[in-house]
Design brief:
By secondary structure, the chain is α/β, with parallel strands linked by helices. Helix content is about 30%, strand content about 25%.
């Protein structure tokens, strides 16, 4: 297991899983464009030897696509995956594991004690430790010395894309109540003072928000340390959703196979690189490649963005907290890690899959009634959630409608980052015991065969929404739709369009899946006019899901295109309609097909588009990388 990023990159280079890029590569657009293509080709990790900033070559090598393949990620964490899965599946807080060992020794057989001892050994690694000297303090630099990564042409400036942002609870400081999160950091552009200020963009329902809110209430600054690099396990830990009050440093230690070393400046014997006093209130990750130290004022914000984000659109310019930079350090052999986000899948999709592999069973155990859950990556992760639950209420009665599933849906929408889901599709395990949330086609088919559109739609309006999702027309605001189905199939899903007539202005009908139809229309033709053209007996109702799109050929070309188009461009309350609508007792339903308006709207964020000139420049480099990789293989 790797203690540092340099150890990891050396091993990947030695084993042919990383390729050196010897050509000069601009950190403005070129590096990101190269990574996107290499990732799409399931290519190697990249080691840029000569990254170029606007003012010349950067002195730090840059690595990217480190986690961009399932096989490589499993290789990096090969010695820790099974022990970590075992302890997480046990459902025991690592901090209490030691008590479990001693409490169990006297009354458990030897095999059981050995298992608990093995778990305790892994749990021990979850405990951060305080150390003396730390490599991260070896040099002091400026923000402008860092690689100035710009991934998309309309980004508002350069960004750190793999930061580990560390904060502690103001009223109860200490590593056990710390938060380590990955919140993008804008290091140039907009109104930030060069080398003195950076933008810290954190979204709703993130751990840092609790610490910041408490600091604001107390009228205090919130101390912040931003780590870059270090053990690969710390990068994964920073994106792992954990219950509030549980530190991500525990995951970093267990996944990295060693206790995470933290240090304070007053433990350093050398002060050569410090000209100013350093606050002793927040520890620093000793093995990080870089660390930025500073604070957030209680209520100070500045415009941050735009930024090409992982839904495939720009997140726009909004006011976010601004961090005052006090110190920037780096170790002697520093390596700078980066990633690129955009329309999924990208490298961050591998994070999501890996974390789901580690923690999927944990979620099922934490939410009563949930058997499996999956945030659908192709739909942008948060916009669409699949879940399987149980339907055990009144078992002596025939199951006619969702009951316990609705309790399960509310539990999901109240649990951590699952609460950001916009569309939740729920099925009962009893109806298809072998069904998996990972089989997208089968799961959608199961839902559409059983849905009663008059009864099974459950809206939540005027609620919080994912920060990066603009379909609700306002930052952090939108709606949700739960579709929960039970029982036997109610219909045979159609694939034949021969009897279907379309109203004026609608064209290009395409079958995506049985029962799923896309129809093309320009903005002047409303989804309501489409719905009013039909009644509940029309043949088109054999397609219970109809999606109105800007480009039907694109949306129907693949399941990936369909999921991304539909769920990143729809707000449930605003954009879901139906044929023969029947609102009753404040419940919305319809007797015919559901209609999703997934066309682009004026309030939506712009879609990410690459710069053609940049693409042309980097194509020869990408070709060389893939050739080198094939030879290494």
């Amino acid at each position: 297991m790797y203690k540092t990023l340099r150890q990891c990159t050396d091993d990947l280079l030695r084993t042919g899983q990383m390729v050196r890029v010897t050509e000069p590569v601009s950190m403005r657009l070129e590096a990101a464009a190269i990574q996107r293509r290499v990732f799409e080709a399931n290519g190697p990790a990249l080691y840029f030897e000569r990254p170029v900033n606007p003012d010349g070559e950067c002195r730090f090598p840059v690595v990217s696509n480190l986690f961009g393949a399932r096989e490589r990620m499993r290789y990096i964490f090969r010695d820790a995956i099974e022990p970590l899965k075992e302890i997480l599946s046990a459902g025991v807080d690592p901090q209490s594991m030691f008590a479990a060992v001693f409490a169990s020794k006297s009354r458990m057989g030897l095999p059981s004690f050995r298992k608990i001892f093995r778990l305790a050994k892994t749990a021990w690694r979850s405990r951060p430790k305080i150390v003396g000297r730390a490599p991260v303090f070896q040099n002091r630099i400026k923000i402008s010395d860092l690689p100035q990564l710009v991934s998309w042409k309309d980004d508002g400036g350069a960004y750190i894309t793999l930061p580990q942002v560390y904060t502690e609870q103001p009223s109860r400081p200490g590593v056990w109540r710390s938060n380590l999160g990955m919140y993008r950091v804008q290091i140039s552009g907009n109104q930030y003072k060069p080398d003195e200020e950076v933008g810290l963009h954190y979204q709703i329902h993130r751990g840092i928000a609790n610490h910041h809110a408490e600091a604001i209430q107390r009228g205090e600054r919130l101390r912040v340390n931003i780590f870059i690099g270090g053990a690969p396990a710390m990068t994964v830990a920073a994106v792992t959703p954990l219950p509030e009050g549980m530190s991500e440093l525990m995951i970093g230690g267990m996944l990295g196979g060693r206790r995470i070393p933290m240090t304070y400046y007053n433990s350093q014997s050398s002060k050569d690189c410090f000209d100013e006093p350093f606050s002793l209130s927040l520890p620093v990750y000793a093995d990080a490649d870089f660390c930025i130290s500073g604070y957030l004022d209680a209520n100070r914000v500045l415009p941050e963005g735009p930024f090409g984000d992982h839904l495939g659109y720009y997140s726009l310019t909004h006011d976010f907290p601004v961090m005052k930079v006090e110190n920037v350090w780096r170790r002697n052999d520093a390596v700078y890690p980066m990633t690129v986000v955009g329309r999924p899948p990208q490298e961050d999709s591998m994070f999501a899959e890996f974390i789901h592999e580690l923690t999927g069973d944990v979620i099922a155990k934490k939410i009563l009634g949930v058997k499996a859950v999956r945030a659908v990556n192709e739909a942008g992760v948060h916009p669409l959630l699949f879940a399987i639950g149980s339907e055990r209420y009144a078992p002596y009665q025939s199951r006619k409608r969702a009951a316990e599933l609705l309790t399960t849906a509310h539990a999901c929408l109240g649990f951590g980052q699952l609460s950001l889901a916009k569309f939740v599709f729920l099925a009962a395990e009893e109806d298809a015991p072998s069904m998996s949330v990972n089989d997208t086609k089968r799961f959608l088919t199961h839902i559409l065969e059983r849905i009663d559109t008059e009864r099974d739609l459950h809206f939540t309006t005027q609620t919080t929404c994912y920060t990066l999702d603009y379909t609700g027309g306002e930052l952090n605001r939108g709606s949700k739709l739960v579709i929960a189905v039970v029982g036997s199939p109610k219909r045979e899903l159609a694939t034949d369009m021969s009897e279907i007539r379309l109203p004026h202005g609608f064209c290009q009908p395409r079958v995506v899946l049985p029962g799923v139809l896309t129809v093309q229309a320009t903005p002047e033709f409303s989804s309501r006019s489409f719905a009013e053209f039909y009644d509940a007996s029309a043949p088109i109702n054999r397609f219970p899901m109809i999606v109105i799109v800007d480009d039907s050929d694109f949306a129907s070309a693949s399941l990936r295109n369909f999921l991304w188009t539909t769920f990143t461009r729809c707000d449930p309350a605003e954009d879901v309609d139906g044929i023969n609508v029947l609102p009753a007792q404040k419940h919305w339903g319809c007797r015919g097909s559901l209609i999703f308006d997934a066309r682009r709207k004026p309030h939506h964020a712009p879609e990410l588009v690459e710069d053609a000139n940049v693409v042309k420049r980097i194509e020869p480099i990408v070709e060389k990388i893939l050739v080198r990789n094939s030879r290494a293989g």
